[in-house]
Each structure stands twice: as structure tokens, then as C-alpha cells.
Amino acid sequence: MAALPSSFSLSLDGSSATPAYLQVARAVSQLIESGTLPEGTALPSERDLSAHLALSRVTVRQALRVLEEQGLVVRRQGSGTFVAPRRIVQPLSVLTGFSEDMRARGLVPGGRVLSFEMGRPSPQEAMNLGQSPLLDVVRLRRLRMADGEPVAIETSVLPARLLDGAPRERLERGSLYELLRERGFTPARAMQHLRATEADEETAALLHLAPRGAVLATERVTWDASGGVLEFARSQYRGDRYDFVVELQH
Questions:
Q1: What is the CATH topology of the domain spanning 88-245?
Q2: Residue 246: which pLDDT band, with cuts at 50, 70 and 90?
Q3: What is the pTM of this model?
Q4: Is the CB of residue 215 less than 8 Å from the CB of residue 203?
Q5: Arithmetic mean of pLDDT, 221-240
Q6: Which of 19, 39, 128, 164 could pair with 232 in a Cys bridge, judged by C-beta atoms 3.0 to 4.6 Å apart?
Q7: What is the mean pLDDT of residues 206-223?
Q8: How far, in Å, CA of 248 to CA of 24, rounded?
Q9: Which among 29, 23, 34, 30 has a CA at the least distance from the CA of 60?
């Protein structure tokens, strides 16, 4: 039996009405969230945890399953259980662009352009942008990264007139919201729809997900203060890396 690492200190309350597996899950989650167990740390095996905590392996397995469902650990066949990369918490009540949001969290935004084109909008795009289907749009599809890890695929469609003369490099590499502000168009409000779905083959490959892995799909229309539509965006976020949070008040 291997000794538990010094950072892995758990205590259970035998008199508590809380089931033992939930106590274990809660204690491990606190170690993860406090940074005591950083990303990539290998957890002790089920056998070692069972022996040290005097619990059945079934109970330990239940605790690990809870942690996995919460996205706090990942279980790798033949390798063990590891602390998962931290999730990106995205408040739905705050309007920010991807680059700004990542920097605010201490992460380095990055990515690459999957496609860039200018042309006539589709009927859905024209409707969401509130413009004539005869007027051109810029359509930019990008793989978005946080600290070098792919976390989202984002397709932004904007009226071409808003970006007339803008350097293509700025469109492809920089923050669209920052560029719009520089040109006098400040994002003021947005309407966003969110749904859970499965990744298709291309999306799974780009986001490093298992086939049919979970993604959070969004559609967002953004307006400026005068009511003009600035952007229609469709995105797919990794379900194992993102939490979308809504604050409710009475």
C-alpha cells in the first residue's frame, strides 16, 4: 500500500448524516479549489484511498464519480485519476469579448483562423443582423484558445460597413470588440441563447474532445447603445472546460 502524499489530507466525520462518499468528494474538491491539488495532480488509487480512509472501494468509487461529474477530475483508463484543468466560469450577465474575458482571468488568449470571407449573408444572418441580404458581411471563424488549449470555436458575422478599411490582420488576430470600440461602435447589450449538444467530428477534433463529446452551443446578437446590430455570433464551447453562470435576484 502506497503512502498518501502530504498534500492529500482527508478527515471524515463518522457521526455526520452526510454519506461518506459525499464527505470524501467534498474534501477532495476543497483541496482542488484551494490549489493544494493543482491541475494534473494524480490522485491516490481507489485501493490506497480505501485502505487509508477505512472505506469500501465502492464508496471511494462513488466519490470519484461525483468529482468527475463536477468536472474536477478526469479518469484515464490504465493511468488513474487526475485533477482536471480548471473550468472557465462565464457569467451570462456580463458582456465581454473572448480576449478580454481570458485576460481578466489571468489566461493568455490565442487561437487561429479557420476561415475568413466577405460576401452576402445567409437568410438567418441577414435576419439577425437586421440588414438587407444584398449588403455584404464579414464572416470570421476562429478556434479560440486559453493558455494554448483549445476551448471554443467561434463564428462571428458582422456588417462589412463596420469594418471597412480595417487591416485583415486585426480582424483575424485581435479582439473584435476592441476593434469595434476603436472605430466608434461600442457593444452595449446582447441576447444570447445557450443549449447543450454533441460535437460533430470536426468540432471534436478541433477541441480535442472524444467523438460526440459534450459542447455548449451559443448564438448571440450584440447591439450598440443606439440599437444598431454589431455582431451575430455562433460558438461551441468545450463542455468540460466551461461553466455558464446566471445570477438571479428577487
A1: Chorismate lyase (3.40.1410)
A2: low
A3: 0.65
A4: yes
A5: 91
A6: 128
A7: 90
A8: 30
A9: 23
